[in-house]
Amino acid sequence: MPDNNRPVALVTVFSGAVLQRILDAVAAGPSPPIADWFIGTFGVNQAAAEAIAAVPGCRYAPVFCIQPRTGKRTRLRRRLSPQEAAQLPDTTHAGEIPGTSAGEVIPAGDRRAWGIELGRRFRDEMRSARARGIKVDAWQFDEVLGECGRPGANNPHRRFVGGVLRGLVAGRPRLGDRHEKGFVWAARTAVVGLPGLPFDGDVRAFSQDLSRAALFLVGEEYAEFTGDPTAVGRSFADGHQAFVRSGGAHRSLGHRYVVGMTPGWRPSSTGLGGNVDAKSPPEVTRWRNSFLDARIAAQRPRGFAQFNFVKENVRPNRVEDAVDSLHHACKQALSFN
Predict the structure, then answer these.
(1) Is the pLDDT of residue 269 over 70?
(2) What is the pLDDT of residues 220-264, one digit of tens each?
(3) E strand or H helix at 308, and its extent?
(4) Which has the closest alpha carbon to 296: 332, 250, 254?
(5) Is the pLDDT assigned to residue 3 strictly greater than 80?
(6) What is the pTM of this model?
(7) Antiparallel, parallel or unpaired: β 303-309 and 8-14
(8) Which of 150, 156, 280, 324 is the most exposed place for a label (fewest CB within 10 A)?
(9) What fold, for 8-76+135-163+180-335?
């Protein structure tokens, strides 16, 4: 478990070729580390796990994805040993998550049960990896869909995503799984929308699933690097503040909130914000750090994350600058203690 007296720093999604640069940038920060670092990309990989474990303060946290394109292999069928399968005689949900081959995220029916099954399949992958000697310290889930924050009863996205979270945290008790929380990434529209919904019905059920599963809730604050960074930082605290001001499960999630960012050099990527007006690298660094300072002052989070170290985001110095922003944020957060 992370140290409650230190911030959490999270690095998520990267190619194998860039991992060592990320780890070198982490190691270049304060020594001993002032944050608990968790690093991982899609799927479980032994080489990545070993490289991450070799850096002081770093822990391995692979990412599991809800999208059919990225998680198709997992969604097509259960992958268990014959001995494990024999302990699960009910095969009703052993096959393809309906709609996967067509690229549909949520199935047309039986959504709660299929969601639980998908979450359990993610735990199957971790259980198998650990049996092979791979040290998996935590998991990451990408992501709570924005539709989960929409009003209305019997929201199909809440039923399916809530099921996935339930399956992830509980796993398959018959196969020896115990409750295990992880990092839950959430679209900004979900973060902003959920706290304002009436806390009853499927909203209550979904929020309880989310709270039980999330060791930390990572809100995707993918700002465009334009305008006054102080004003932008304050404005992006709104969802976090709403969680903290709520009651019950929502307030608890607010106290486990992590600011999710992206390096910012892929402005053409829908929804990822970033350097849309072609600032120079020093200007990007100044803008990002000023955003973080204001964001911390508006509502201090539990930690900070960077997502999507691929393509334009990994050109020279961009990886290092993005990781250095996490060092900066952690130092600033500690100064508020």
Answers:
(1) no
(2) 999 999 999 999 999 999 999 999 999 889 999 999 999 999 999
(3) strand 303-309
(4) 332
(5) no
(6) 0.97
(7) parallel
(8) 280
(9) TIM Barrel (3.20.20)
pLDDT beyond 80 at 1: no
Strand pairing category for 58-60 and 63-65: unpaired
List the chain domain ranges. 8-76+135-163+180-335
| Reduced 3-state DSSP string for 190-214 | HHHHHHHCCCCHHHHHHHHHHHHHE
Q: In what order do the strands lie in the sheet with 257-261?
A: 58-60, 36-40, 8-14, 303-309, 257-261, 214-220, 182-186, 140-144, 63-65
CA 328 to chain centre: 20
Residue 286 has phi, psi (to 5 degrees) of -65, -40
The tens digit of pLDDT for each residue in 130-141 reads 999 999 999 999
For 214, phi then psi, to 5°, come to: -85, 110
CA distance 29 to 286: 18
> Token pair for residue 109?
């029916």
Q: Which helix (H) or strand (E) holds 40?
A: strand 36-40
- Structure-token match 């993610």, residue found: 122
Question: Phi and psi dihedrals of 279, rounded to 5?
Answer: -65, 160
What six digits make up the tokens of 250?
A: 């929502």
- Residue 264, beta-bridge partner list: none
Q: Helix 318-335 and helix 281-298: axis angle, to 10°?
A: 30
CB 324 within 8 A of CB 11: no
Cβ-contact 206, 163 below 8 angstroms: no
Give me the mean pLDDT over the 72-94 stretch: 96
Q: What is the structure's pLDDT at 247?
A: 86
